[in-house]
Amino acid sequence: MSVFDVEYKDGMEQGDCPFVVHGLTGEHLDMKSAHSLKGIALRHLNSGGKILAIGHSSKYESIYNNPNLYPQIFPWLFPYGFSGIGATSLSDAEHKCHLLMYHDKCFQTNLNFSFVAFSHAQVKASLTGAFLLTETQ
């Protein structure tokens, strides 16, 4: 649980919420066919629903010294593109810990954020170890 947990209430108390994610979650995707998902999307668009389009680049992104990587991977967690890993004076591990302790638990409850953050840490550690091993031989 987050260090800021004092109650189980989610959401805004007052004012506008500028970025809201509505849609199907992973557990609903498994139960629907591709045809059914297209129908749901078409009904949403025909009724005036809004969407967020995220493009793909033909270039690969580096996991090293790239503060824009996490905002690009998780635009719903970094809606304004700020505070990606490496964008602050915190180490990567400290920054990930800070994000996982964020008061509204959005990073904790996201199924992919912890997995990607841990995987990147493992890749970086193994590549650094392999580089040091080849330097000594």
Largest sheet: none
Structural class category: mainly alpha
Mean pLDDT: 78
Question: What's the SSE pattern?
Answer: HHHHHH
Descriptive notes:
The chain is mainly α and 137 residues long. It has two domains: 22-52; 64-137, no CATH class. The chain contains six helices and no strands.
Briefly say what this structure is.
This protein is mainly alpha-helical. It is built from six helices and no strands.
Structure characteristics:
137 residues; 43% helix; mainly alpha; 6 helices
Spell out the blueprint of helices and strands.
Blueprint: H1 26-29, H2 34-46, H3 69-73, H4 92-100, H5 106-109, H6 113-136
